[in-house]
Design brief:
The chain is an alpha/beta fold. The chain has ten helices and ten strands. It has a single domain, classed as 3-Layer(aba) Sandwich (Rossmann fold), CATH 3.40.50.150. The strands form two sheets. A seven-stranded mixed β-sheet has the order 3-2-1-4-5-10-9. The relative contact order is 0.16. It binds S-adenosylmethionine. Keywords: Methyltransferase, S-adenosyl-L-methionine, Transferase, tRNA processing. GO terms for molecular function: tRNA (cytidine-3-)-methyltransferase activity.
């Protein structure tokens, strides 16, 4: 694997051509509805088949996203990682009118640092986070719309309901609320999740989720980028709309550009802290295949309201 790989004009042209070919015929509109309405069932079956064996633990998590560390854990882990100096700059200051302090009881109410992971799957980020925030006055919420995935999280030996609350929740549902009040979160994390949602719904999802961030809180996003190998290798007949595809198992994937990511979070009223394309070259020597990987990595902060004169 090589990091920060520059693409040649030829690489770009090859990718562009292959995507043009694999998306020249789209699945007819009348056959597309099920991929949106039954998305939860497709993912639930996915976890029925693969259990917790498909995704790997996100071991890069604290290196790339030191903002996940509660104040008490920051120096400890950042020293270990020798990582991003921004780590120390990222905590939301508790607000005087913090809604969390004014409403009825909810899990994690007494923690001073609260994280939500959306689309947590079987917990490949959840358990590294739980094991880091224990005894740090922090609390993790994690949700997924697949009941099987959430059950696997709860059955894991490291699941601990004194620091974590896992629940089934579909973030595309407009009229359901989260088990905590608005403006109560320091961090929201989505890892390869927004890409699995229909592109017409993603903006609404980000808007709604952002209402749960405290002022100064941060949205952390990692996902598929445009021209990634996994987009290029799609066969004809899997494309739903531009840069949006369905896999053989019915789950879907969208491939983002930097500009789209920027618009998505800015439209939700958040301010850019980081928005980058992570480009790498992976080589499978046995099969003699070179794969250009493109991932988006972004951080957007909820601003404080302008103070009254
Ligand atoms: C590619 S998997 C990533 C899982 C996990 N974040 C990880 O990094 O291993 C996408 C996850 O998003 C979940 N998901 C997709 N759409 C969702 C929605 N509308 N509401 C909640 N979860 C959703 C799926 O069930 C699946 O677990």
């Amino acid at each position: 694997m090589w990091d920060h790989v520059q693409w040649t004009e030829e690489d770009k042209e090859n990718a562009r051509q292959r995507i043009e070919e694999n998306s020249c015929t789209q699945i007819p509109l009348k056959e597309q509805g099920k991929f949106d309405t039954d998305a939860c069932q497709y993912w639930d079956k996915f976890y029925g088949r693969h259990q917790d064996k498909f995704f790997k633990d996100r071991n890069w998590l604290f290196l790339e996203f030191p903002e996940l560390l509660p104040p008490g854990a920051k120096s400890e882990v950042t020293n270990r990682c020798q990582s991003d100096q921004q780590a120390v700059l990222t905590t939301a200051v508790p607000e005087k009118d913090d809604a969390a302090t004014q409403t009825a009881t909810f899990p994690g109410q007494h923690a001073s640092f609260r994280i939500l992971e959306v689309g947590c799957g079987v917990g490949n980020s959840v358990f590294p986070i739980i094991n880091t925030i224990k005894e740090k006055d922090a609390f993790l919420y994690c949700c997924d719309f697949s009941p099987r995935a959430i059950q696997l999280v709860k059955d894991h030996p490291d699941y601990d309901d004194s620091v974590c609350h896992a629940f089934v929740h579909d973030v595309c549902e407009e009229n359901t609320s989260m088990p905590f009040p608005p403006r109560s979160l320091d961090v929201i994390l989505t890892v390869f999740v927004l890409s699995s949602i229909h592109p017409n719904r993603i903006q609404g999802v980000v808007n709604r989720l952002s209402t749960y961030l405290k002022h100064g809180g941060i949205f952390l996003f990692r996902d598929h980028g445009r021209y990634d190998f996994s987009q290029v290798r799609f066969k004809k007949g899997r494309c739903l709309s531009e840069n949006f595809y369905t896999r053989g198992d019915g789950t879907c994937v969208y491939f983002f550009t930097k500009e789209e990511v920027h618009d998505l979070f800015s439209n939700a009223g958040l301010e850019e802290v980081q928005n980058l394309e992570d480009r790498r070259l992976q080589v499978n020597r046995r099969e003699k295949v070179a794969m250009h990987r493109v991932w988006m990595q972004s951080k957007y902060r909820k601003l404080y309201p302008p103070s009254a004169p």
